[in-house]
Amino acid sequence: MSELSVAVVGAGIGGLTTALALARQGHAITLIERRTGFSEVGAGLQLSPNASRILIDLGLGAALRRAATEPARVVVRSIRSGRQIGQVALGPFMRSRFGAPYWVIHRADLQTILLDAVRSTPTIRLLIGRKVEEVHDGPFTASVTMTTQGGARETLSVDAVIGADGVWSKVRAALGETASPAFRGYVAWRATLDRSAAPAPLAGDETGLWLGPRGHVVHYPVASGRLVNVVAIERAPEPVEGWAAPGDGSELQSHYASAAPALQKLLAQPSQWLRWSLFDLPATTLVKGRIALLGDAAHPVLPFLAQGAALAIEDAATLALLMTDAGRIPQAFATYAEKRLDRVRKVQGEARQNGRVYHMGGLMAFGRNQVMRHLGPEGMTERYSWLYDFRPTA
């Protein structure tokens, strides 16, 4: 294996993991981030075994165990009645079945763990406050042109460029992709609250999933169990302005006014909400020559399967195994696309389908509930064995 020079654009979860995984393989990484700070607000994420085992293999297990929580189960309830519909086995069952934990964690905690690891790795150079203007592919090298906040312009020539710059990726255009992510008719309200403020039935070490025809709600403990992360989904005809916008909690409470009392009480607790519009973009082109995309830059996915971060982590690990020689980067990237496309398309499709299933009403909801009860907790988990059993290979 020869040392490669690689530019990674975007220092979110996917970009940080990619930089770390490539550096572990002995490559020299320049990690480029437009922001000048790394604060993350009001968002948790789920690290299923397909992602957690990769992060553990990168040496982050001890830090993650301190920051994450490991719910024993998902309890599925009806929004209106509060009655339990079914369960999904997590905790010990996940560990024994897939050999890795199913963790939930505050996004800021995961980002801090990854960022600390990146900053302590001498072969990673982190450039913040840099806006990528152009990305070009060449026969022997690729280039990234960026500007500083002061307007200074710099062009970097490298063996490969990896775009991990999110849903509205600048690097995606360098692949000739002209389609824009599409708004899918949902807005997510996100908040955290102190665990002691959550209603007692909803403050345990489990994930709650509430289903109804007008939306659904997910909550789980984060920040070593000190906080509860809450995500409430509502159907919406138009996206919110900008990337995220503050939300008036009274509007959300009005939307869920007919919900079970415990859920109403939970939604009344947060003092601050942020709203995100939900977009996806069917995965088509992941690579071109010496340029590759990963995570939301490559395949934005709806959050209804909790796999956005996990897919980015999978992408990072797969790329790190394939990138071994400067002369064979185009072939390695072509193999990466071949390995990833069918899987990410399947995840995107399953996430869209979950959006429909979660919001069923009437007889269809009755049938859904019967299926969940028939499968039981472990059967519900086994439905996604193809997802959780993933291991990156070259």
- The number of domains is 1
Q: How much of the sequence is in beta strands? A: 25-35%
Helix content: 25-40%
Apparent shape: globular
Mean pLDDT: 95
Order of helices and strands: EHEEHEEHEHEEEEEEEEEEHHEEEHHHH
**Secondary structure category:** alpha/beta
How large is the radius of gyration? Answer: 21 Å
Total count of helical runs of at least 4 residues: 10
List how many beta strands DSSP finds.
Answer: 19
- CATH class category label: Alpha Beta
- Biggest β-sheet: count, sense, barrel? 8 strands, mixed
Name the strands of the widest sheet in spatial order. Answer: 5-4-13-14-15-12-17-16
CATH fold description: FAD/NAD(P)-binding domain
From the N-terminal CA to the C-terminal CA, the straight-line distance is 13 Å
Low-confidence stretches: none
Give the CATH H-level superfamily. Answer: FAD/NAD(P)-binding domain
The CATH architecture designation is: 3-Layer(bba) Sandwich
